[in-house]
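Run UTP--glucose-1-phosphate uridylyltransferase through structure prediction, thanks.
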Amino acid sequence: MTQAGSNGVRTVVVPAAGMGTRFLPATKTVPKELLPVVDTPGIELIAEEAAQAGAQRLAVITAPRKQEIMEYFRNFPELEHTLEERGRTEQLNKVRHAAELIRPVAIEQDEPLGLGHAVGLAEGALEDDEEFFGVMLPDDLVLPVGVMERMAEVRAQYGGSVLCAFEVPEDEVSNYGVFDVEEPEEGCPADVRRVRGMVEKPEAEEAPSTFVATGRYLLDRAIFDALRRITPGKGGELQLTDAIELLITEGHPVHIVIHEGKRHDLGNPGGYIPACVDFGLSHPTYGPHLRRTLHRILAEHEVEDSQD
Ligand code: G1P
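Sure, done. The structure for UTP--glucose-1-phosphate uridylyltransferase is below.
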């Protein structure tokens, strides 16, 4: 359900200023967010998800050397004209889609000071009466799409801030922001928990739970004030997790929506490749052939491995 209006999110902030070092050498010239999942860049998948959640504005935090991300959302008159002349309607619609989805706004982050710093820069992009906003990390694909709408429902009920959580195996928690959650309250929906603390990338043995933050946040405007008051945390960076933890200690309601779906990490080749395979298998044109090819490749590898 699309929620424009009072319950709906109007602005989604997309931190996209990272150097993409795990994708070098490709990211020497192509921003990580423009790498295609089958044929569509991750940033367009995010824009689509944001638009579906009702957002009209995509506040993209970019770095000076990553102008191509904003370029991607403009019109391409010559290309469009050529495709139109040749009657390539399907391609023409694909070219136009990003520009039609949502209004992008660029915000430059000159220095890589952390996710908390990046989100803090978006304050000026919000209208004065916007009480909350979304954050979508473009490294995380959360499927099926729609968790933001669920999070908006939860915020409408409980107020404050609402984050998306996944449950992960214990040995993976130290890659994430981890939630300390209360026992489910009576009458509380099964997928919702109140958060009583949050810690960024703890050691497995110190982690308060196996519920982790996965790239979708619905944040109350109060976060900006908290972001101004935190000091550098994990990795010497200003952490969004620390600002959320600060709000919790001050009594601000924070809840998680436990998402029962799948997710892909587009932030490194090890997660990007399975995402391409997953989307490829579902693709009407490429799916059937890819399925057969994957079986063949696996069989070849099994033979090679048995000869080692
Ligand atoms: C960021 C956040 C972390 C969150 C993760 C989700 O970490 O700091 O709390 O769990 O995204 O992908 P990053 O993966 O950017 O190091």
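The pocket of 1-O-phosphono-alpha-D-glucopyranose is lined by residues 115, 137, 139-140, 176-177, 200, 212-215, 240-241 (CB under 6 Å).
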